[in-house]
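Records of this kind hold a single protein each, on a pair of labelled lines. With that in mind, the following record should read easily:
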Amino acid sequence: MRNWQRLFNVLGMKEALEEVGFFRSVQEETIRTRQASEKRRDFLDLLLEAWAEDSDTTSASAKHVLTDKVMLAQCILFLLAGYGTAASTVVFSSHLLARNPKPQQRLRQELELVKEEGKLTYQGMPDIPGTNLHLKEGDLVQFPLWSFHHDPSYWPDPEQFRSDRFLSENKINIKNFTHMPFGMGPRNCLGEIMLAMRFALMETKVALAKLILAADLRIPPGHEDIDMESSPFLLRPKHGVYILLTPRKHE
């Protein structure tokens, strides 16, 4: 922490930003509420349990890592770290729905059916839908996920938008290790282990549901295809995504 404070001073950056103060007040209020109520077994409860265990350590040599600042940083990171991937998912999903009006309308009808008193709820949110190779220690393995996800031997008509592929009754047709958006096994996405993936998926579903209920999506002429930007981390459009939004008239 001291090294970070020195770096802040060298770069002339302020540690006590107004936005940090907002998150700190939310964290303190939420912790007080949690300590006076039942546990929810979520990310914050896990942090509080670890903090309690860390505080109970009486050994003089013990390192108390979970300070108030560290807990605040972890809570902010939980909220912010998934926004890039969630935003990419919303962008690509919106583009596909705009190119395919029939699935878009079907999704809108399903969302209208699950609304309770005109509002979307958490409970009502629908599911939007061996080799002989030997590796030596230290070998670097990289999975070509784009190739897997567009291979016609695993995905018939891979360039067609067919959301029915992921319906419950069709998942049996998906071969193991051919669909790995978050990786698999003990080295999969950390968010899947620490509940962050569930949070990211829910915020993605809410954003798409609100958008679909509020407007009709269409692709402007000349923007039917997306050029991808080469990136070692996130798949992103090279020149952005253009979609025409027409507000829907509600009865």
Remarks:
- Strands lie at 215-218, 228-229, 236-237, 244-247.
- Residues 89-128+191-251 form one domain.
- The longest helix spans residues 196-214.
- The chain has a mean pLDDT of 76.
